[in-house]
């Protein structure tokens, strides 16, 4: 077979020879179960398939997340013995099981640039390391054949899952004549605050007497860690120096202008650190990626503007955490390709964000961990995957309390898609989406999905949910669809204590008009609503109709113990739909994406004074000739007074509410809501009337 090499020195090719390699039998027959020869394995678990090239496989493996570092060194003990010492440090969550470490002695046969041949190995050592930050040190001594040349010897240290076969990390050790100092990093370019993880690549990291880093070229050493993290907050270029000392010998290297902190108008490539509202909007001009071992933290009120066709790829950790009043906004002035989290086993969080205008789905998650909660996923499209959220081979993703609306899909579903995934989906408002197979949900390939307290209504498509050889378990949910409830192939959905638009067997199901307080005039993505519109009238049969088990009870009102927290109504017994159980944040600052304008060009709505007595002035603005409706609601979702219903010109407007209802009767003191609704937008604000 041909020799092959690693151009970037981040790939270690090895050969086990049937005739001479003592580890051949245990790996080929024991671990892999035999097979035809030659037998090529990449990364421990990937076999070359038809059409694969070494280059394509290399790039496939290069994007894998590694949960640990391995440092080490090799000593010549004399008497034909060498000792390899390795330190394993866990830096990411370890999700594989039956993990083992092994020391492998290899011979480069006179040419270190070529692959090496395995000539001896240690026993397979159980690697007991569990928590991030834990480390363990192992060593093994080899006895050399006197005919072997020491300069051709290398020891490869690797850790591998004997269950999944995947190699988690590896390094190659050699006998050193001189100290060689070097360092690298995945990220060296980006906007503030830029997170940089430096990796000491000196050839004897573990046994050094002293490590010193100068991160900014000021002549002052800032860290003595082997692999430090530094944050750059000011725009500019920075020299970086690494100095190492061993046995009284000191070597250093300076890389000039190695780190460049840019402004926020032309972002591409690897990113990490903290992005803030103060520096936004961040303009992403080409694909960005969060590499493994890196975190991008996006603070409340920050806006990300993506150029056409650009996407956010996550291999490390994404923490985008906004608030109800200051969401994180992901959008584009044209269209973009969404957020894709692939093989990231860290705690990714997308919370209180607005994700809009992607034409390749808003969020795609494959074989990763994530919490997706309290988001507005609006005006996205796709074809092969779900337009809002697509989960593939996931078991640790939570999808809770999201407002998913006005998404469109020409061939699949406008809402949520599940492929070979196990998930619990709670209290999501999935309304006014367009799909082909289904408007709201699609399950495939033995997925297991529990729907608890979701409201699914006014979507278009062949059914509310498409279910193919999967388990769909529905409880305390509302599914209202003009076509079929389900298109099911090879399975039967289980539905209990739910409100349905058609008869369906199951304990506690009801088939009555849910009586929303202000439903849209039609179905599909052309109609816009806000969460308050889906609060029930107090005559709705969905109130207290969920599973009576106390486990599903509505949230208790802290100001009125024993009563449910509004918008849940009745008693503490579960209300069917989003406001039952754990509830839903109905006071979200709704940002409706309109394709004629950027998403944060929203309606302004406020009132003064607040609290008030006896009257308050409501101020709002609109940016075009619009038909608008301005109404006052009480805590039960009932319309108290219609203040205006008609056409208005662009600009600022005011209306006064004097605390009376439509019959001009004074209303009682308490909390009320003013809702402004146009054809394409909606906005609400809280009012407090005091006496």
Secondary structure blueprint with pairings:
Elements: E1 14-15, H1 24-31, E2 41-42, E3 46-47, H2 54-62, E4 68-78, E5 81-90, E6 99-107, E7 116-121, E8 125-126, E9 135-143, E10 153-161, E11 167-173, E12 183-185, E13 189-190, E14 194-200, E15 210-214, E16 229-232, E17 236-246, E18 249-261, E19 267-270, E20 273-275, E21 282-290, E22 295-298, E23 303-306, E24 312-314, E25 317-321, E26 328-331, E27 339-342, E28 348-351, E29 353-356, E30 363-366, E31 369-373, E32 376-378, E33 381-382, E34 389-392, E35 396-400, E36 403-405, E37 408-409, E38 416-419, E39 422-426, E40 429-431, E41 441-444, E42 448-452, E43 455-457, E44 463-468, E45 471-475, E46 478-480, E47 484-489, E48 494-496, E49 499-500, E50 604-608, E51 616-622, E52 626-633, E53 639-648, E54 651-657, E55 670-677, E56 682-689
Parallel strand pairs: 1-7, 13-18, 19-21, 20-22, 21-23, 21-24, 22-25, 23-26, 24-27, 25-28, 26-29, 27-30, 28-31, 29-32, 30-34, 31-35, 32-36, 33-37, 34-38, 35-39, 36-40, 38-41, 39-42, 40-43, 41-44, 42-45, 43-46, 44-47, 45-48, 46-49
Antiparallel strand pairs: 2-3, 4-5, 5-9, 6-7, 6-8, 6-10, 10-11, 12-14, 14-16, 15-17, 17-18, 50-51, 51-54, 52-53, 52-55, 55-56
């Amino acid at each position: 077979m041909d020799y092959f090499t690693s151009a970037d020195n981040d790939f270690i090719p090895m050969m086990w020879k049937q005739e001479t390699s003592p580890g051949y039998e245990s790996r080929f027959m024991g671990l892999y179960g035999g097979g035809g020869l030659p037998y090529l394995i990449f990364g421990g678990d990937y076999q070359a398939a038809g059409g694969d090239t070494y280059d394509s496989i290399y790039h496939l493996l290069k994007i894998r997340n590694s949960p640990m570092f391995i440092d080490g060194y090799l000593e010549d003990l004399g008497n034909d013995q060498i000792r390899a010492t390795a330190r394993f440090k866990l830096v990411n969550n370890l999700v594989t099981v039956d993990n083992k470490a092994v020391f492998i002695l290899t011979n480069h046969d006179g040419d270190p640039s070529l692959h090496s041949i395995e000539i001896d190995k240690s026993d397979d050592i159980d690697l007991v390391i569990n928590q991030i930050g834990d480390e363990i040190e192992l060593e093994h001594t080899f006895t050399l054949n006197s005919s072997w040349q020491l300069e051709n010897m290398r020891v490869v240290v690797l850790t591998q899952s004997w269950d999944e076969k995947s190699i988690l990390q590896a390094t190659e050790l050699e006998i050193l004549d001189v100290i060689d100092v070097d360092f690298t990093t995945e990220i060296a370019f980006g906007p503030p605050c830029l997170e940089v993880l430096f990796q000491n690549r000196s050839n004897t990291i573990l046994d050094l007497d002293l490590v010193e880093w100068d991160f900014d070229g000021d002549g002052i050493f800032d860290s003595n860690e082997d692999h430090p993290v530094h944050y750059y907050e000011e725009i500019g270029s920075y020299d970086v120096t690494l100095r190492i000392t061993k046995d009284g010998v000191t070597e250093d290297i300076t890389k000039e202008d190695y780190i460049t902190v840019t402004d926020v108008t032309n972002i591409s490539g690897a990113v990490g650190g903290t992005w803030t509202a103060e520096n936004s909007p961040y303009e992403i001009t080409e694909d960005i990626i969060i590499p493994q071992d890196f975190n991008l933290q996006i603070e409340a009120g920050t806006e990300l503007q993506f150029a056409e066709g650009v996407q956010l790829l996550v291999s490390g950790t994404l923490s985008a955490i906004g608030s109800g009043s200051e969401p994180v906004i992901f959008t584009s002035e044209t269209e973009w390709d969404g957020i894709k989290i692939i093989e990231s086993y860290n705690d990714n969080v997308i919370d209180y964000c607005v994700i809009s205008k992607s034409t390749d789905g808003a969020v795609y998650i494959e074989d990763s961990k994530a919490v997706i909660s309290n988001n507005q996923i609006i005006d996205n499209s796709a074809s092969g995957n779900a337009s809002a959220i697509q989960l593939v081979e996931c078991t640790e993703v939570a999808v809770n309390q999201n407002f998913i609306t006005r998404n469109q899909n020409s061939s699949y579903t406008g809402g949520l898609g599940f492929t070979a995934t196990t998930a619990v989906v709670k209290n999501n408002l999935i309304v006014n989406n367009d799909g082909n197979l289904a408007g709201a949900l699609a399950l495939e390939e033995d997925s297991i999905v529990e729907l608890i307290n979701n409201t699914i209504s006014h979507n278009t498509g062949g059914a509310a949910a498409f279910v193919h050889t999967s388990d769909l378990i529905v409880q305390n949910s509302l599914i209202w669809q003009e076509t079929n409830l389900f298109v099911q192939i090879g399975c039967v959905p289980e539905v209990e204590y739910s409100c349905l638009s058609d008869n369906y067997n199951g304990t506690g199901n009801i088939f009555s008009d849910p009586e929303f307080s202000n439903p849209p005039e039609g179905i599909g993505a052309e109609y816009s609503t806000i969460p308050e519109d889906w609060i029930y009238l107090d005559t709705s049969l969905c109130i207290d109709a969920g599973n009576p088990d106390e486990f599903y009870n509505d949230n208790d009102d802290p100001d009125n113990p024993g009563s449910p927290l509004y918008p849940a109504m009745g008693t503490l017994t579960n209300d069917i739909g989003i406001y039952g159980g754990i509830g839903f944040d109905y006071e979200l600052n709704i940002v409706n994406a309109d394709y004629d304008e950027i998403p944060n060009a929203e309606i302004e709505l406020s009132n003064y004074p607040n609290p008030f007595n006896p009257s308050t002035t409501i101020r709002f603005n609109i940016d075009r000739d619009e038909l608008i409706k301005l109404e006052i609601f009480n805590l039960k979702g009932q319309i108290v007074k219609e203040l205006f219903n008609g056409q208005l010109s662009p600009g600022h407007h005011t209306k006064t509410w004097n605390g009376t209802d439509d019959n001009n009767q004074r209303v009682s003191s308490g909390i009320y809501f003013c809702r402004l609704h146009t054809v394409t937008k909606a906005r609400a604000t809280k009012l407090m009337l005091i006496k």
